[in-house]
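Limitations
The structure tokens in this dataset are predictions for the assembled complex, not deposited experimental models. Users should treat interface geometry with appropriate caution, especially where small molecules or nucleic acid strands are included. An illustrative entry is reproduced here so readers can see what is and is not provided.
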Amino acid sequence: MLDVTHGDTHGDTLGDTAGIDLFQILRDGRPRTRSELASLTGLARSTVASRVESLVRLGLVRPVGDAVSTGGRPSSQFALNASGRVVLGVDVGASHVRIAVTDLSGKILAQDSVAMEVAEGPAAVLAWVATAGRELLKKANAASTDLLGIGVGLPGPVEHATGLPIDPPIMPGWDRYDVPQNLGEQFGVPVLVDNDVNIMALGERAASWPHIDHFIFVKVATGIGSGVISGGLLQRGAQGIAGDIGHVYVPQGDDVPCRCGNKGCLEALAAGPAIARTLRAAGLDVESSADVIALVKAGNTDAIRAVREAGRTIGQVLTACVSIINPAVIVLGGSIAQAGEHLLAGAREVVYARSMPLATGQLQISNSRAGANAGVLGASMLAIHHALSPERVDALLASTAR
Amino acid sequence: MLDVTHGDTHGDTLGDTAGIDLFQILRDGRPRTRSELASLTGLARSTVASRVESLVRLGLVRPVGDAVSTGGRPSSQFALNASGRVVLGVDVGASHVRIAVTDLSGKILAQDSVAMEVAEGPAAVLAWVATAGRELLKKANAASTDLLGIGVGLPGPVEHATGLPIDPPIMPGWDRYDVPQNLGEQFGVPVLVDNDVNIMALGERAASWPHIDHFIFVKVATGIGSGVISGGLLQRGAQGIAGDIGHVYVPQGDDVPCRCGNKGCLEALAAGPAIARTLRAAGLDVESSADVIALVKAGNTDAIRAVREAGRTIGQVLTACVSIINPAVIVLGGSIAQAGEHLLAGAREVVYARSMPLATGQLQISNSRAGANAGVLGASMLAIHHALSPERVDALLASTAR
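Predicted assembly:
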């Protein structure tokens, strides 16, 4: 009952030993001497020295400063060794798979992608991921023992605790498929799985908005979804579906059926297929989201008008998000958002007109900057965060001590 | 860039010394021996012994176990001493002030309240708070040196970093008034100030839903607002106004002006004054929210119907909250919600009909259990959380060492 505002987050740190805290202190990248580390942790100098040595051997920490170059007494300062180990970030979309190998700062060292339907199933998709992953590690001159983890984004709901996709509507064959086990057995490292929009929110923020603690990433493509970061933390909610704004009811669409079985959902009114339907009704030859994007890029005014109107509809739901979350930044991503500034313009129009001045005075609404890389960047951040957690570093230290 | 999912929360722990962690470990209430504490913190036995002794002297930790009662060797176990110190929780409403003294577990030891308009201004309100606070400390047999902090809830927007009310619409004379300085000078302890609905969310959760990490408290009275707890943490947003759902646009109220200057806000359609207006239009003699509540309690069907319809309108906005936050529990509080189950029934009707099954399958929507105590309980939790934070305990330890 006591720790009401910290909750579980705080609980996570209670089991730490001071030796792990030493590494967590170094995670900010600033170099420190052994005696600084001793006074920060309260550990004996000799304990600090032996832990630092183990972390250097693990490739997580490196000596810095001029002492090394002069070849004299041992280096006096130590810092996080961001280039010492690597992770893989995998972004599985409805009709593409992207993969990147990054260092521990999230810097992309090599990447690859393929056009592939997620509906081909987990065996086909993960076989490509495994082959491409091994190739990329080679390209980045990383040994398989340098790999600390794999992050994967999937285009459907994922149970956070297990990493299993749960009843994903556009992923036949994937329901409860154990992705962590499959890739874990092939690579021998922890595998973290999350929803693609959560992953994109992490990636976009890490790449372009690192100091923004209240952040919403909205993906507008074949579907509509969002990833919510509040208080600096990705929020998943009670069932892991926080941010699922595609099925918020929008009154003017009362009669439009949605694939979810309900009527009047945001997605049924403003995602790519809905825009295509509007344009077909106006007599244009449009089948898919891709056709919509092509028309917009060609400057077709009907298409531009329809995308802007979709932006206004999305803006209606975003006004509620603004009131509930009070974000500093909202980013629009996904193929429809990235076809120019039209969706953004429509969304801004409604949000700035309908929200409280205090909430919008400093609110930025922007198109994605990370673009197609948001997914792999976020997946790698997920893997890095897990790999550098106190528990994992503790496990690594214990394994080398044996 | 690295610690993308932990953000600032994690940063909070980086400066800790191991001695503070010792107390943070004991905050869960479980008794532990000195040697358990030594192995959990990595500190030397002698350091643990002296820190434990200081914490016992501060009244934050107490010896437990039978060793004390037999009068032999010193007690072998130590635990948080919840009854060792106290805090004050103050709930300032539009037309009432409540105050309670609680122990460090949030247990109310004594309380008082008065009917007073917040519009009387800070000097009058805080003078009553100071007098009542001193009386309550006496009643609870607490010396002024036992007081660790004061939490205050105000019925308007509060800047989180400073505790200053910012342009509060119903609080003439309070704009940027320094409540922490006023009470801090009188009581010599830290004073934490927050918005009343955030405070009620903390209090309701602490009292009745301590293990629920995704939680929304909605207050429906003269106005409508909510407090949002995500991932176990109260979310304040970029400007401290997260949860401000009273001004979300509701389409069917397009022509109804709101006191905020906009039209069609939830509050303009479904708060007490809006229900009173509906009933006046139906020919009833209703002026205020209090009249509405009296009619509902008397079983007037027009009033019951109007409150239920208000519940449906609130439910519309709550469906968006459910999609964005994915809460496990939504609690309705405030005077209109507590006039029976009618508002609740209307809200449930719409939320369960319009939200995704995965989001509502295990969602509870409930009336407040803490009721009128939610505010003072939450204010005391705010004070307790601050008082027991690593930084504050460190400061206390340092002051006794001098």
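Some entries come with short summary sentences. For this one: Chain B has 16 helices and 15 strands.
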